[in-house]
Model the fold of this input.
Amino acid sequence: MQIIFYLCQILDPPEKYSYTFIMKKLLILAVLLQLSLASFAQQALGRGQNMISPEVNPDNSVTFRLNAPKAEKVQITGDFLTSQTPSDLTKGDDGVWEFKTPAPLKPELYSYSFLVDGLKSTDPNNVYLIRDVATVTNVFLVGGGRADLYKVNDVAHGTVSRRWYSSPTLKMTRRMTIYTPAGYEADNKRYPVLYLLHGMGGDEEAWISLGRATQIMDNLVAQGKAKPMIVVMPNGNASQEAAPGESALGLYKPTSQLPKTMEGSIEESFPDVVNFIDSNYRTVKAKSGRAIAGLSMGGFHAYHISKQYPDMFDYVGLFSAAIMSERENQSPVYQDSEAKLKTQFAKNPKLYWIAIGKTDFLYKGNEDYRKLLDAKGYKYTYYESEEGHLWKNWRIYLSEFAPLLFN
Amino acid sequence: MQIIFYLCQILDPPEKYSYTFIMKKLLILAVLLQLSLASFAQQALGRGQNMISPEVNPDNSVTFRLNAPKAEKVQITGDFLTSQTPSDLTKGDDGVWEFKTPAPLKPELYSYSFLVDGLKSTDPNNVYLIRDVATVTNVFLVGGGRADLYKVNDVAHGTVSRRWYSSPTLKMTRRMTIYTPAGYEADNKRYPVLYLLHGMGGDEEAWISLGRATQIMDNLVAQGKAKPMIVVMPNGNASQEAAPGESALGLYKPTSQLPKTMEGSIEESFPDVVNFIDSNYRTVKAKSGRAIAGLSMGGFHAYHISKQYPDMFDYVGLFSAAIMSERENQSPVYQDSEAKLKTQFAKNPKLYWIAIGKTDFLYKGNEDYRKLLDAKGYKYTYYESEEGHLWKNWRIYLSEFAPLLFN
Done:
């Protein structure tokens, strides 16, 4: 834009512009052109492709494009497809392959990859990528409905910090992600805290990237649907100091098969996290000002942590939780579950919220757990969604759970 | 690991384990297996490839691998290659292509892409990617020497925050990245501040990702080579609220051709940034506690800002700066440069540091500028490196410049 402005000045100069002046302008133009291309040419190793992909059309159908003239077959795979089978792109005369969804897509954050002659490839025209454990995929967002909560909107934004804390129990310095709501820094109020836990293979980056936690909280607070709150996203793998690439282990290949994930360490060390937050932020230092929720393995952690420390959390959220009754041999945390649950529910938590999708492979375990709660007369709220063990559902659960907190 | 532990328990059960106990264990094993695979299978759209790439060998040669049995030609391009021509990978009998660098690589953070039958592709085995304007490339790090500053080491870590501030001058709410050094939150000291500016096409994410600013500062401070300082990385495009994808503009395709980058707005509004930081952090609120540095366009900004506000910064760093004398028609900021420089240098800045690479396309402009400074007798320090307009150089310049500050 600036360059075009210059070009116009040069091509249509008012009379007052001298020859020298125009030559100087041309020199500046040359420098500006080089500046804007320099990082591309020297660092980015190729200009990518000058096209838009994916393109969300006005009717919410989506068109994907890939310039691959030498490819024999290009397919696309992604969670927007109605079947598990990849869809074929069609090659145009110019070597550009294209695929348009046969119908408009529902509002959602979607992920996809191309398969170029069978090789999984990212879309060179889409810089938006999210890592899930050891795989990186492109994402796009179809707005509208609930998915507007996942967008960055023109509202007041909270602060997101990556911060290290000391865990005396684990004898480690560890990294966490902390969201403080808009206004936190400008006032002197105390804020309640939601502790939000990831699943197996995840880390302190999972909720902020795949979970769109920043956007969901910013938007819910701006709409007056959720109370402003601090959201703390710790790392739930007791063997890890930090997410892959963020610790002294270097740029290693991530795995979901980590030691010390569901054997008691995270639960035993959780007061270290709460103490750190209560010591470093203006929190409501009381059960009434604390919520804990987690997805999958994080739901397992939230389940055990909340009953292990029955005076710590007034709000509990189990999102597609990996409820497994038989862990007694692993850690004191897993012993005497029924007695601990009795104590926890005798103290009347304000909300005990269980959510799961109809086709989740953990459905049966959750159903059995609800039967146990029913049999004991322990009060809980149940939210059942479509589909299974998916980030789509965990974003829905967060956006349903957060408005219920701290009222 | 945990799953293997379970498997061993099941396959070699002590006598005390009953049939029921073993069956329960098997059930838990099945759940754990599903948990650890669930996100892969349902979200990540394919398992990627079960191999290591890139592999940094013990002698610092590097091996790249790609499983692409149907490809006819696989090449690699990257800033580790000695020539601009891509190198060919060799196909193995198993369909895995491989390339090993002919010699050990010097310590550095490198970027690369594959070209699969001409199509630029990311490495599916490497989750470490950095965006540069509109292009995303894989990165890897060969440690040793100065590059050890770019690694996450086992040292105390600062906090990195993405935070929004209000700019009354630009009438916008804008996003910045702020590094506070280890210990900042735990003490009551005041800290000096380095304002660190990006180049054309960059944004508030550039220094923290491509620039490895967190790692460089953590490591320099831990080694006692730099004073603990706050590092503020604002967005230098006056038309942008935030980096691509982080504003209400949505997930659009980034461009380096932005309006309002070098026409005075950033310089005029810079006191908004400094006021925000001085109001929200425990800073040394004095010229002696402030440094400003920038690369390329950010060097241009640092040049103009430091002379426009001659009482604001005692330390100035121009990294491959886009020094262009003739900007007088654009903004009052660019007028009377010589008079402003005279005022600035009459106030004896503690450090005026100019760095550029021998082959940088801006070398001549910087040489001319140094001649001007020499002619006027204005004191500056000059640092000349090999090569050109590259992030490699900007990381070097930061690691050379930061130790000179606030002594």
About this structure: Chain A is about 30% helix and 25% strand.
